[in-house]
Amino acid sequence: MGTFVAGAVVCVLAGLAIKSMVRDKKRGKSIQCGGDCRNCGGHCH
Predict the structure, then answer these.
(1) Which contacts of 35-41 are long-range, i.e. CB under 8 A and separated by 24 or more positions?
(2) What Å distances lie between residue 18 and 7, 13, 25, 40, 45, CA to CA?
(3) Residue 29: Cβ-neighbour burial (10 angstroms; 0-12, 13-18, 19+)
(4) Residue 7: what pLDDT?
């Protein structure tokens, strides 16, 4: 039972991280460009 709970927590955290990355990408931010794709010269895409 503990393994199932731990696995569920990891899945939820991974889902939240992916959701945050997708939302940031839609807002024009990216990790590769220091958080601001508008100033990277198009290398994020």
Answers:
(1) none
(2) 17, 9, 11, 22, 18
(3) middle
(4) 96
> Residue 28 region, left (φ>0) first, then alpha (ψ -120 to 50), else beta?
left
Per-residue pLDDT of the chain (45 residues; tens, 9 = 90+): 999 999 999 999 999 999 998 888 787 766 666 555 566 665 555
Rounded Cα gap, residues 12 and 35, in angstroms = 24
Phi/psi at 3 (nearest 5 deg)?
-65, -40
- Residue 13 DSSP symbol: H
Residue type, 43: H
pTM over 0.90: no
